[in-house]
Amino acid sequence: MIKRVISTIALLFTLCTLSAQQTIEPGVRPTTNDFRGRVEGAFEWEFAKNLSLEAGVQLRLNNDFSTVDRIQTSVGLNYEPIKFFNFGADYILINGYDTKGWDRPRHRVNVNAEGVVKAGRFEFSLRERVQTTFRTDSVNRYEKMNPEIMLRSKLTVSYSIRHTRWTPYLMFELNNTLNAPKVVSNFKTEPYSFDNYISRYRVGVGAKFKVSKKHRLDFYYYLDYNRSYDIGYKANKGSLKEYFQENEYRHIFGISYKFKL
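and the corresponding structure tokens:
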């Protein structure tokens, strides 16, 4: 009996040791900084009570404003069933640009829910978004997810200044991966499984300006801390070739214009 207990304990200890040995820690590449820009134009049309259509085009710059990062076109619906709460969905066509030219487009679908609370001249809003991005190129699912599913949580606090057209605001956002591939030693011998982690922390400050009843401008600055993982396997053998954590700070300056029909 004692020998069986000792054998069982030894077996459990061995399994725990092997499990610990299988934990793969990534290397860390140097942190980078990039200054980026965004310019957007959009319109909103409330074609039925509490139901509106919104569409827009956005240009993004990267590499210290020197190159085009992407052009994306969006269209979506928003519905406000009760005051201070709304939900909606939108589709975005992403045309990325890199050293090889215009990259293969990506298709993104967002589903949103947002609640708003007012306290005097302050307004607090919390938006939860499930973001799904479909790639059009072929990828190894152990290296990149396709589709990529993210949960984006954004808290915004704005203040309506008396006797002025300006509304300044502060915001904080977290991006959480929901189906990132878990790193394995060899994808041909180990089963596929999901991992999740916070991939982006964003803080921002901005101000909205009411040009007129139908025209709005939004000026903003975002500071992003992005954490991603570069995973590579040997194509034929399936063994792990490289695994690095990449950290980047992005300073984003943007202006958005919206016209309400």
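(Above: one complete record from the training split.) The first helix runs from residue 2 to 21.
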